[in-house]
Amino acid sequence: MTIRNDQIRKVITTPYGGEHFAAFFAEIRPYVQRIEEMRHYERTAVRGAGGSVPSLYAWEGGTEAFERLTETFYAKVLADDLVGPLFAHMDPGHPRYVAMWLAEVFGGPDRYTRERGGYHHMLTRHLGKAITEPQRRRWVSLLMDAADEVGLPSDPEFRAAFAGYIEWGTRLALANSQPDASPPMQAPVPRWGWGVAPPYTG
């Protein structure tokens, strides 16, 4: 096998390998295991698109991870004296619907928009509920406890992005739930990314 210097230059000077990386790696794949350093690496379930940064949805573990999170979370919610009454008549499918919402927000498939009506539907679930700040804080706290319990990624970059959306979203839900609120009735489902800190890969 011969790898020209110009091929190597194209790969190492293009961010994430760019369009040339796949062809380059196909050429060297048979020899990778002979490189001592490469033997220290293991495959992971995290996949990006080519050389791109994976979405928060992918980093968390996809749909199944969100469903584990919401099932555990809503079991805690229903048993809680402060927020439980808000969900006393909860649809049995509610944990799955919230998992769909979170998955879409964090970069996953747009199932909540297609199957549940997107932002408008989510907004109507909160109108007139008169959520209090102590209830909001308890909701957030229980969700973070559930995230730990089901083993969501614990790296600070992921948790900062995850917590950032939860804080933002719950504060909007609180405001929109007040009797005098007049929020916009139509908007896209928000899409949340890594923000300032990209995923830690060191």
TrEMBL record:
Transmembrane segments: none annotated. Heme binds at H121. InterPro entries: Globin-like_sf, Globin/Proto, Hemoglobin_trunc. It holds the Pfam family Bac_globin. Keywords: Heme, Iron, Metal-binding, Transport. GO terms for molecular function: heme binding; metal ion binding; oxygen binding. It comes from the Bacteria. SUPFAM superfamilies: Globin-like (SSF46458). This is Truncated hemoglobin YjbI.
